[in-house]
Amino acid sequence: MIALVSTFLGFISSAIPECIRMFRDAQDRTHEVTLLKLQIAYDRARIAASSADALAAQRHQLQAIEVEAARAEQQALNARLQANLTGIHWVDALAGSVRPILTYAFFLLYFLVKLAQLYLLTNPALPWQAALTASQALVALWTEEDIAIFSAVVAFWFGQRAMIRAKR
Question: What is the pTM of this model?
Answer without folding.
Answer: 0.47
